[in-house]
Prior knowledge:
With 226 residues, the chain is an alpha+beta fold. It has a single domain (3-222), classed as C8orf32 fold (Roll). Helices cover 43% and strands 18% of the residues. The protein contains 9 helices and 8 strands. Helix 3 runs antiparallel to helix 4, helix 4 runs antiparallel to helix 5 and helix 4 crosses helix 7. The longest helix is centred in the C-terminal third of the chain and has 18 residues, at 205-222. It is globular. The N and C termini lie far apart (35 Å).
Amino acid sequence: MPSILRRPRQAATSWVLLAGLLLFAPTPRAWDADRMAPSAQKQGAKAVAGLRALQAVVSTSSDLDERLRLQAINEFFNRRILFRDDLEVWGEVDYWASPFELLEKGAGDCEDFAIAKYFSLVVAGMAAQKLRLVYVRALLGGPGGSVQPHMVLAYYATPNAEPLILDNLITEVRPASRRPDLTPVFSFNAEGLWQGTGAQTAGDPVTRLSRWRDVMFKARAEGFEP
Length: 226
C-alpha cells in the first residue's frame, strides 16, 4: 500500500501538493435564478423540489463560516441522494450528471456527488479556487480491504492549508490527515488540472477533463457558474 495509507501525518502533505500556488480571491455568488427554475422544470418535479430545498440551504448557510457551509452542503446531498452506479441510474458505464439531473434522479455515483457539491458551494459564495474535485484511491473495508477509484471534493482554506474532504461515504467533513484511507491521484476545477503524488490508476486526466467540460456546460445552462 502507498505510504499515505500507513502514516496519516503525511496525508496532509500529499493533499497540499495538489493545491498549487493560486491566491484565493473572493468570488461573487454564482447563482442565476432566472435560468434555474426553468431548467429544473425541464428535468422534472423532483428537480424542482430539489432546487427549492437547495435554495433554502444556500440561503441559510451562505452567511455562515466556511466550515459550517461545507458541512451544510455535504449533508444536503449525502442525505438526499442515494449512491448508485451509472449503469443502474443512466444505463451507461460512466456518466457525469449535472446538479439538476442528479436531483431529479435522486441517485448517483461519487462523481455526481462531488460535482453537485462543487457547484452548490460556489453558488453559496465559496471561492471556486478553494475547491478541487479529487480522484483518489480509496481503501474500503479497512486494512486488507480492496482499493477502489473514487472521487471526493477537497476544500483549501489557503493554498498551503491541509484540505477538508467532502465525501459521499461519510457525512462528517474531515481534514485529509483523518482520511488515511484516501490516496490523492489528481485534482481539477474550472481552472485546470493538478497532478497528485500517486500513479494514475483512477483514470486518464485528459479523458476525465473532457467529461468535466461537458458537465460544466450543462451546469452553466442550468444557472450555475463554476
